[in-house]
Amino acid sequence: MGDGNGWLVWVGVALALGAVEAATVDLVFIMLAGGALGGAVASAFGAGFAIQVVVAVVVSGMLLGVVRPLAKKRLTTAPHAPMGVKGYAGRPATVIEEVTDHSGRVSIGGETWTARVLDHQVARPGDQVTVLRIEGATAVVETAPASPQDEVLPPPGT
């Protein structure tokens, strides 16, 4: 590759690796293509073939070791994250209109939903509730259990 057009060979290798990446979509071959482009730059600056190979290997190694893990982390969604209406389960909601076992309204992440509670509970406007599940267009919610601070204790000595 000493004729001055060696960079074209490296670019061709990069394009071929890019095509393989398009078929595999695993972010390995695109990193190798980046290394090949590093070799092309080295060739364009007149480096010898051995230096071009070293640059290609070093750049590929850095891309595979640093960029690929970050890119995979950014591009992959958590497989355990529920989507759609299942994604509402466990989310907090604020009561807008009194919620009984038959009717009511809550706000879940800024969206207004019809709602109902279980076991004849009642949730008042402003109360925080937890979404158990979505049934059709209705959020089934539960009121927060009473904390020990919420209990009214009798005065001492009675």
UniProtKB/TrEMBL annotation:
Q: Where are the transmembrane segments?
A: 46-67
Gene Ontology molecular function, alphabetical: peptidase activity
| Keywords (A to Z) from UniProt | Hydrolase, Membrane, Protease, Transmembrane, Transmembrane helix
Q: Does the keyword Transferase apply?
A: no
Q: Fetch the SUPFAM superfamilies from UniProt.
A: NfeD domain-like (SSF141322)
Its placement in the membrane is given as:
Multi-pass membrane protein
Q: Does the keyword Membrane apply?
A: yes
Protein's name in the database: Membrane protein implicated in regulation of membrane protease activity
Look up and give the organism this protein is from.
Lapillicoccus jejuensis
